Amino acid sequence: MDLSTVLGIVVALGGILLGQAIEGGSLLQILQPTAAMIVFGGTIGAVMISFPMSVLKQAASDLIHVFKEDKVQPNDVIDEVVRFTNKARREGIISLEKDAAGVKDEFFRKSIMMAVDGSEPKELRQTMEVELQYMEERGDYSPKVYEAAGGYSPTVGIIGAVLGLIQVMQHLDKRDGVASANILFLPAAGKLKFKHRKRMIIKEMMLEGTLGILEGQNPRLIETKLTSFLDEQYQKLRQQEAATKTKRQAA
Fold it and tell me: How far apart are CA 195 and CA 70, in angstroms?
């Protein structure tokens, strides 16, 4: 579970409801179901017109990533690459065939298998970079859907008022649309962009690690190169893990 997403929603909604209560307003004004139907129904309809169904299905399935932490962590990738490198130097790169079959990440598995099959480094890089470009483009689809929803929802709120629905919306005017845009749709787009970029960095690490194995580079050199991909948080975590490992070996 992505704790920042959950806490963000709780803080945002809690602040709005508390502010409304302090000002003497009724909570039912904000939680008015008819207004929500107008805003969300109109927004979803507009988004459906804007994107093909395949992209909408992807965006719906990707929404879970806003609330869920990614399973693959960059430090785990480095450890696996170093392990593969050491084995390849001892037993030859062909020895990684069975290990590659057990790799869960499809991109990494394909990279290792190409190396095992004797691909040249240039050929391997070109092939996998084409796949990375496709993944990069495809990963932008879902954020664009939620960004579009964030743009439409305030406008739908205005349309509701213009169409004489002020009474139905109980003087909310476009507030439901603005709230849904800034609490749900746009933040979801931002989180999906961030997580997609993190996944792409991990894929780049996998590719560089595989090329290092194929070229017979020193495991320490590969580890140093891959560590440079990490942000400060993960670098500190890796240093702490290395220090703990050293202490255990010394004991």
Answer: 8
Task: Please report which helix (H) or strand (E) contains residue 242, including its range.
Answer: helix 232-250
Indicate the pLDDT class of residue 41, thresholds 50, 70 and 90. confident
CA 9-36-52 angle, 5° bins: 85
Write out the two tokens for 5: 């997403």
pLDDT higher than threshold 80 for residue 213: yes
What local confidence, expressed as pLDDT, does residue 10 receive?
A: 85
Rounded Cα gap, residues 60 and 64, in angstroms: 8
3-state helix, strand, coil in the chain (%, to 5): 80, 0, 20
Q: CA-CA distance, 240 to 194, in Å (whole number)? A: 25
Distances (CA, A) of 163 to 24, 33, 183, 220: 28, 18, 25, 67
Percent of the chain with pLDDT over 70: 84
Amino acid at 80: E
Report whether pLDDT(172) > 50.
no
Provide the CB-side half-sphere exposure for 116 (13 A, CA).
18
Say yes or no to pLDDT of 9 above 70: yes
CB 158 within 8 A of CB 174: yes
Place of tokens 């690490």: 205
CA distance 109 to 105: 6
